[in-house]
Write a structure and sequence with these properties.
Blueprint lengths: L2 E5 L3 H12 L3 E6 L10 E4 L1 H9 L3 H6 L6 E5 L5 E6 H4 L7 E4 H12 L3 E5 L3 E7 L2 E6 L5 E3 L1 E4 L6 H7 L6 E13 L8 E7 L2 E7 L6 E8 L10 H11 L7 H8 L6 E8 L5 E2 L2 E3 L2 H4 L8 H19 L3 H20 L1 H9 L4 H13 L6 H16 L13
Helix pairs in contact: 1-5, 1-10, 2-10, 10-11
Pfam families: FAD_binding_3
Organism: Microbispora rosea
GO molecular function: FAD binding
Length: 402
């Protein structure tokens, strides 16, 4: 039985742990955080990813944890409503698509893997060295261990990727925007409603889901690459406050609440593009290998599908990890490329460059319900996401490939 280390305990790592365990592998997950990461923002599960969740027996639970969002309202600097959109259309969802909080999905995945998977929290990989016996792994806090295989599921700024493939700058491509999300009091008493305040070059939002007492604040802005310490939240909070100083609507109040936010997050909207996702006995999955960025709306689905395919290919390879990794890349590459294509076009609608573009977008929102062919117009909005989300056929890896 191969012994596999997964670095990273979020969606990709937890899903991979589930399927590797199901295929008969011994699995250890190491996570830098002291406990399960249960924060985060709204995420979507679509297309092929729904099939993966269903095969895990979790689809009903995922649906029970749906955000149940109803409407998106757009406001100006004085808080006056200037447009509305259904939550489904705002999120590019249709049919069976599900929106869930990242923390809820993480908890469901962890519960599904708690039996038979070894978890090591508050630790991280610091060095990797291949030996005839496998991969010798050095940890920040634990004693060194040797594993047959190591998989980096440790996100956009993957340590495993850096140790195996080299500097992050070779693979992480900034899309010219940043995003910040954190929890705030629900002072607007929002109920399954998303409020958005668009301004030239920025977009500020606040939403509260069906089962939440608090709310999330979201700041999107276009920018060149920014210099800041990713380990220093205080520095990042000051940067965001300076960038949004003087803006209208609820921005000042949200920035005040930011100072006490326990889950502050800020990062570039970036993609990871690599020619290969494995080297020797080390592979990557999820954002570490092929982050599509939050702008794609498909990062979670890529993580779910990628983990399922990797585990299945390793099982079918019957001990030949090189063949398993090669099959994983071959089967998943097209799906990744199609989903990464979504980000650039989505960003154009998420952060508008000028006041004139904002006025035109709001005018179209107001006119759409009254226009002939409105249903076809809506289909054109969701069609690219649907095609990307279903750009792979989920095989049954319990039967070896013919």
């Amino acid at each position: 039985m191969a012994n596999i280390l997964i670095s990273g305990g979020s969606v990709a790592g937890l899903t991979l742990a589930y399927w590797l365990r199901e295929r008969g592998f011994a699995v250890t997950v190491v996570e830098r955080a002291p406990s399960l990461r249960d924060g985060g923002y709204k995420i979507d599960v679509r297309g092929a990813a729904l099939d993966v969740v269903a095969r895990m027996g979790l689809l009903d639970e995922v649906r029970r944890h749906s955000t149940d969002m109803r409407i998106a309202r757009f406001v100006d600097a004085r808080g006056r409503q200037i447009g509305t959109m259904s939550a489904q259309l705002f999120g590019g969802r249709e049919g069976e698509d599900v929106e869930i909080m990242r923390g809820d999905l993480t908890r469901l995945l962890h519960a599904a893997t708690d039996d038979g998977v070894e978890y090591v929290f508050d630790d991280s990989v610091t060095a990797l060295r291949e030996t005839p016996e496998g991969v010798h792994v050095t940890f920040a806090n634990s004693a060194p261990r040797t594993f047959d295989l190591v998989v980096g599921a440790d996100g956009l700024h993957s340590t495993v990727r850096a140790l195996t493939f080299g500097e992050e700058s070779q693979f992480v491509h900034d899309l010219g925007h940043h995003i910040s999300i954190f929890t705030v009091p629900n002072h607007l008493h929002l109920d399954r409603t998303e409020m958005m305040y668009p301004a030239p070059g920025t977009s500020t939002g606040m939403y509260s889901t069906g089962r939440a007492d608090d709310a999330k604040a979201m700041f999107l802005f276009s920018s060149p690459p920014l210099e800041y310490d990713r380990r220093d939240p205080a520095q990042q909070k000051k940067l965001l406050a300076d960038l949004f100083a003087g803006q209208g609507w609820e921005v000042p109040r949200l920035l005040d609440a930011m100072r006490d936010a326990p889950d502050f997050y800020l990062d570039s909207i970036s993609q990871v593009r690599m020619d290969r996702w494995s080297s020797g006995r080390v592979a990557l999955v999820g954002d570490a290998a092929y982050a599509a960025s939050p702008a794609s709306g498909q990062g979670t689905s890529l993580a779910l599908v990628g983990a399922y395919v990797l585990a299945g290919c390793l099982a079918e390879a019957a001990g030949d990890h090189a063949a398993g990794f090669a099959a994983y890349e071959r089967e998943l590459r097209h799906f990744v490329e199609e989903n990464q294509k979504l980000a650039a076009s989505n960003l154009k609608g998420m952060v508008l460059k000028s006041a004139a573009q904002i006025r035109f977008q709001m005018l179209m929102l107001r006119l759409m319900p009254h226009l002939p062919g409105k249903n076809r117009m809506i289909e054109r909005v969701t069609e690219p996401i649907r095609k990307a989300a279903t750009a792979i056929t989920i095989r049954d890896y319990r039967t070896p490939a013919a």
